[in-house]
Amino acid sequence: MSAINKLSVGIRKFHTTASRLRKYVELTAVRYPLLKRGNFSFLSDRHLGFFQSILSAHQVLTDELNDLSGYNVDWMRSVRGSSRLVLRPKTTEEVAAILQYCNVQNIAICPQGGNTGLVGGSVPVFDEVVLSLELMDEVISVDELSGVTIVQAGCVLEKLETVLHLSNLALPLDLGAKGSCQIGGNVATNAGGIRLLRYGNLHGSVLGLTAVLANGQIMDCLNTNKKDNTGYDLKQLFIGSEGTLGVVTQVALQCQPKPSSVQVGFFGLNSFENVLETLRLSKRNLGEILSSCELIDQSSLECVTKQLELRSPINNFPFYMLLETAGSNAGHDAEKLNSLLEILINNGTIVDGTLAVDSAQAKNLWGLRERISEALACEGYVYKYDVSVPIRQFYQLVDDIRIRLGNLPIRCCGYGHLGDGNLHLNITSHEYNPILLNRIEPFVYDWVGQERGSVSAEHGLGLKKRDYMEYSKSPTAIHWMRRVKKLFDPNNILNPYKIFPEQSSTD
Ligand code: FAD
Ligand code: 2HG
Ligand code: ZN
């Protein structure tokens, strides 16, 4: 165990460009004046004294200027809370002691992982105490034979990936934020990412977890068996619960054999019909080795190349696709990909493209896709929509919103996990513009609702999407979700203001 933790793995915290950091971030309470602070206790010296008595000095941060600002602002720099305290427990027991006390004292808590969430869920809205998992970053065990890996929730995804590679294993999930996001945050958001097509979502890959409930009780669901039908599978409740039902402290993951052969191709296409045909034939011809199928439109590529000074091997296509295969036999995999490409090129579906010859090239191609969010953030304020839509309608929403918005925004672009029907529609303007926002919303949600899509495919609801849950969930489902929340957290101390719309007195 300890051998794993002693490994020095150089994890790159994925960088934030200086221009973004300079951007002033309005307080959430000011930007959203209708939000009302819940009837929670205000932090007192007595409370602080208690936390200082159970944690060491470096686990209790109170310096607003030097320590707290990064925990109060989200990655997008779009919401800002005013917490005066960050607690950094190291063990499940410390988390339990904190929550037990907060529950009795009526202190609101905002659990925080790597703070890469995109829906305003990971930072306080008002003065909630931030409970950061960042010091709980140990890889507890890795079993090469079964692939079962147990890890503390605060472990950064990229560190875990590096450790797993040493045992010839691979994670079942991967995402552009892997240099900063934590496995606990991934579980709490049920993060999707670029491998979901191959391995499915975390409801399948998480074998077990430990969560601390609002009252401080430790719920041990750290199952490591592949099969376990002994009653309700309670761990599933915490996957995607966005810190509102409990704090995840440990996770048991089903990992996969590391593929020995990976191929990455980047292609230009002249129409969305051709995109769909490429998806159809890729699924059919590549079968089990297809590991990613991503779409990038012209505007997204233009943004990522311009803002981050990246170079694309091909240009001037309305659509680009990034295909990846991952398998165990290089010759066999290459044969499959080549015969697919032969068909697609001969029938004119793919016009131009390139195949990475080594891992450095593959990384560069992936950069053109994975760094789009970062590039968009350089343009100013980003209106982000992460929707599931029927695959034939995948791009229609981007076309429709462009017509609707005219030249109000800087850019409307669409990209995403085509193979999973998950579109990332992004719109940018120099700064936050409520008039533009009112042109976009609720239009986008109505559009998605009519298609019976999902208004949040993978990022969750957090603060920003909480009022739109009803577009994708029935009133009965929402009613029972509220009942579950009440059962687990009767005092509503865990991530208040998130996921659920404000309840009217008649609800
Ligand atoms: P945070 O952002 O800190 O928190 C997210 C939510 O989880 C919050 O509600 C928080 O309260 C809660 N939480 C965090 N840790 C815990 C815990 N231990 N217990 C209980 N609750 C907790 N998302 C995708 O799904 N797919 C992608 O491809 C993807 N790509 C991204 C690329 C970039 C560049 C960025 C910036 C973000 C991306 N995201 C993506 C969004 C984000 O990275 C994921 O949602 C990620 O899972 C969040 O993990 P985190 O550790 O940063 O959690
Ligand atoms: C991705 O797939 C992430 O790159 C982020 O989910 C999407 O920023 C976005 O809209
Ligand atoms: Zn995504």
TrEMBL record:
Class of the enzyme per the UniProt entry, highest EC level: oxidoreductase
Cellular compartments per GO CC: mitochondrion; peroxisome
Record GO terms (molecular function): (R)-2-hydroxyglutarate dehydrogenase activity; FAD binding
Cofactor(s) listed in the protein's UniProt record: FAD
SUPFAM superfamilies in alphabetical order: FAD-binding/transporter-associated domain-like, FAD-linked oxidases, C-terminal domain
One Pfam family in the UniProt entry: FAD_binding_4
InterPro entries: FAD-bd_oxidored_4_C, FAD-bd_PCMH, FAD-bd_PCMH-like_sf, FAD-bd_PCMH_sub1, FAD-bd_PCMH_sub2, FAD-linked_Oxase-like_C, FAD-oxidored/transferase_4, Oxid_FAD_bind_N
Catalytic activity, reaction form: (R)-malate + A = oxaloacetate + AH2
Main location: other
Protein name: D-2-hydroxyglutarate dehydrogenase, mitochondrial
Organism: Daphnia magna
